[in-house]
Amino acid sequence: MSNLEPSAAPAAPKLSGRVIALGIIGGAVLVPLAVFLIVGAINTLYLDCEGAEGSLDCVLRQLAITGLSIPVGAPLGFFLAYGIAKRRARRQTVT
């Protein structure tokens, strides 16, 4: 008689939740920080931010654009960390 037991399939690589969580947090913090600094530099170099009204406009613009970059940074950090975690898990199962 033949052995009808199913062959053991290789285990799927286990992704690290810690790496993915750190990626989401890092993306949600680092991308807005970079945007804040870039928009601040643009305000200083190219736009007229003199006087009370001009400086208020520049500050509000800088905060609004920075706030809008948070929902962009979190998924970006997730996908980057997911790729890193997947590559690490694949490397651990090979060796």
List the helices and strands and how they pair.
Elements: H1 17-45, H2 51-94
Helix pairs in contact: 1-2
Account of the 3D structure:
The protein is mainly alpha-helical. The chain has one domain (17-94). Helices cover 77% and strands 0% of the residues. The protein contains two helices and no strands. It has helices at 17-45, 51-94. α1 (17-45) runs antiparallel to α2 (51-94). The longest helix is centred in the last third of the chain and has 44 residues, at 51-94. The protein is rod-shaped and about 85 Å long. The two termini are 36 Å apart. The mean pLDDT is 82.
For the largest beta-sheet, the strand count, sense and barrel status come to: none
- The proportion of residues in beta strands is under 5%
Order of helices and strands: HH
Chain-averaged pLDDT:
82
- Class from helix and strand fractions: mainly alpha
Radius of gyration: 23 Å
Q: List unreliable stretches of 5+ residues.
A: none
Number of strands: 0
Helical content, roughly? over 70%
Number of domains: 1
State the separation between the terminal residues, measured CA to CA.
36 Å
- Morphology call: rod-shaped
Counted by DSSP, the helix tally is: 2
